[in-house]
Amino acid sequence: MPPASQPSARAGRPGRTLRAVRVPLAAATVLAALAASAGPAAAGPAERPGGRGQDAVRYVALGDSFSSGPGIPEQTDAACGRSARNYPSLIAAGLGAASFTDATCAGADTSHMTNPQAAAPPQLDALRPDTTLVTLGIGGNDLDLAGILTRCVVLGQLVPNGAPCKSSYTLLGTDAIGARIASTAPRIAAVLAEIHGRSPAARVLVVGYPAIFPDDGTACRPTVPLATGDFPWIRDKEKQLNSMLAQQAGAQRDVYVDAYAPSVGHDACKPAGVRWIEPEDTAEAAGFHPNAAGHRSTADAALATLTR
């Protein structure tokens, strides 16, 4: 939802492995793993021209690392962690899009819709008046998701039982993460309004985040070193984020794509071949990000909404 960091030493793979948080400098390492968001290079968004016609689909994809697909072979833009097998590419192929511009970039937040992200141009600059379809997957980095999970991992090492991370964000009866989600809502609304202003004929799909941890709240400390009680708390915050995204989509009469429900049972705690979220850097994807199967699921959910 998972968020900026320095690239790992592993060629073409933004971020580092979560397992490295078990050693000193855990916070910096997990931040890199979750962000998967090295500063983008000068390469522009990927675009594929196609056929023409009155009913042709002209598709633009916007979003962060959960949309770009860091670490998934084949990477088309390593700086932005963009894969040819991410869900935008699968949607474009499934629709036979006449044109497809993938502006997604790891580390993006709502500010990067209208402002440059290092050398990458504002993502909304990819929109055209004749754009007919837009997907938007954004919001996690506005919460500083990487920073949240970094703190949770560090506290989980010190206090493995209970919910020390939840306690640290709810001191004196406050809900710091809930407040961040609430403050992100108007930013999402502003992005959606800008999309409609630039591409008034476009159908807009707001894409939620998949299940990172078990939906039943169970812990998997041998795989992810969080405190046992923080697993269900992070799950609840992710659901709160997705709920906000759905509400903002509805307010703009846009469509919300539920990536969470289909991914239940395929979280980072599951074994290889079952999980759709990688708990560390693997050959399948960057750590704490969806692998190709996860992107396939999100693409299927999006395509299903387009056929209703």
TrEMBL record:
GO terms for biological process: triglyceride catabolic process. It comes from the Bacteria. Keywords: Disulfide bond, Hydrolase, Signal. The active site is at S65 (nucleophile), H289. Gene3D superfamilies: SGNH hydrolase. Residues 1-43 form the signal peptide. One of its GO terms (molecular function) is triacylglycerol lipase activity. Disulfide bonds join C80-C105, C152-C165. Residues 61-296 form the SGNH hydrolase-type esterase domain. It holds the Pfam family Lipase_GDSL_2. This is SGNH/GDSL hydrolase family protein. It comes from Streptomyces sp. NBC_00148.
